[in-house]
Amino acid sequence: MSEGASVQQVVILGATGSIGTSCLRVLAAHADRFQAFALTAHARWRELALQCHEVCPRYAVLTGVQAEDVDRSAFPTTTEVQFGRPAAEELVRHPEVSTVVSGIVGAAGLHATWAALEAGKRVAFANKETLVIAGPLVMSLAQRSGAILLPVDSEHNAIFQALQSGRHSEVSRIILTASGGPFRDWSRERLEAVTVEQALAHPTWDMGPKITIDSATMMNKALEIIEARWLFDFPASQIDVVVHPESIVHSLVEYRDGSVLAQMSPPDMRLPIQFALSWPDRLEGTSPRMDFTQPLNLRFLPPDPDRFPALTLGYEVADRGGTSGAVLNAANEVAVERFLQKGLRFTDIPRLCRSILDAHTFDSAPSLDELLRLDHWARQEAIRW
Ligand code: NDP
Ligand code: MG
């Protein structure tokens, strides 16, 4: 959309989460460009009702509770409250909606994201799990429908920006940065005894619990390798990871002449969210800026797959494709939940994933139904493991 165009009607899937909340702040800062059309949440209806008073969307949807569990009077009278996943999917298809922010966590975000792509919307997606599960199907759907898929994940947003300096065929590799999480320097022995509280304390980013645990195991980077593989269409062999504890350089692209382009900004998700909403325009920023009047040391360190075996899983799945992403993702979701419930050790998360991945019957070109069946199978196996 360029200057003078009408206000973009936006659906925020997962409005009550970390991404959703940051997104609302972007909308508030650019009310002349973006209007909240609908907000969705799963169960936290009180938080959703408060958000509705702030931005007055036309619709609010709760997918995980029934009407009788919710006090309708908590919502503004001008917001129509609906229930269930089909209602959310119908709203993302609404003809007045131009943009959908995919901020639901986990495989649960796939259906509504899929609906938005099918309807040819601009999809600003944080929900990386959708691409991990069904990358090739998602990309070909977007191509068929004319949907625009814009990454909110800070690394992929950075790569998207850096890729605008050259051609696809001129790229020698893309380099994802990783903070390394809270246990970057920990020995294998110490990692065995990580507690839930320690794993939930991320040094540089403030995010929802699932991705915070994924960052601590480095499974988040594994999922991001797979996300990058499908989104940008580079083989796993052209995707590198470098540990960068400061989380200032959000990722890099190296071209064949040796030039490396980086995107830098203090860690704050409002910037990539805004860019995904406004692209190809750049709007006035609202998040903190780089301060070069102070000394700044940036470190880049090689990752250690021996201590963080999730990375090896990420490369393997990015290389293999097929059914392996759906299985890895489902196994990891259950493993993270079991760890958060204190029913699994921290170091068991990648072990569980490895074991379920190795046990599954691989198919190189599955349908969406087959992927959803395997997602279910992997969850059952991961509960039993
Ligand atoms: P949060 O846990 O903070 O929020 C999750 C949101 O999804 C909430 O609105 C929640 O509703 C909703 N939700 C949860 N379960 C379901 C379900 N079964 N069906 C429908 N809605 C559901 O997550 P984040 O915001 O941290 O992460 C969202 C996505 O963005 C993830 O895929 C993550 O990997 C990705 N991401 C996040 C980043 C971040 O900075 N947080 C950075 C990069 C990517 P309710 O509140 O009612 O439970
Ligand atoms: Mg990321």
Structural class computed from helices and strand pairing: alpha/beta
Strand order of the largest sheet: 4-3-2-1-5-6-7
Q: How do the SSEs run, as a string of H and E? A: EHEHEEHEHEHEHEHHHHEEEHHHHH
Number of domains: 2
Biggest beta sheet summary: 7 strands, parallel
**CATH architecture name of the largest domain:** Orthogonal Bundle
Give the N-terminus to C-terminus distance in angstroms.
49 Å
Q: Can you give a write-up of this model?
A:
The structure is a single chain. This protein is of the alpha/beta class and 385 residues long. The chain folds into 2 domains: 8-151, NAD(P)-binding Rossmann-like Domain (Rossmann fold), CATH 3.40.50; 158-265 and 303-384, Rna Polymerase Sigma Factor, Chain: A, CATH 1.10.1740. It has 15 helices and 11 strands. The chain has a 7-stranded parallel beta sheet with strand order 4-3-2-1-5-6-7, sandwiched between helices. A hairpin with a 4-residue loop joins β10 and β11. α10 (219-232) runs parallel beside α12 (310-320). The longest helix has 17 residues, at 129-145. The radius of gyration is 20 Å and the shape is globular. The termini are far apart. The mean pLDDT is 97. Bound molecules: NADPH dihydro-nicotinamide-adenine-dinucleotide phosphate and magnesium ion.
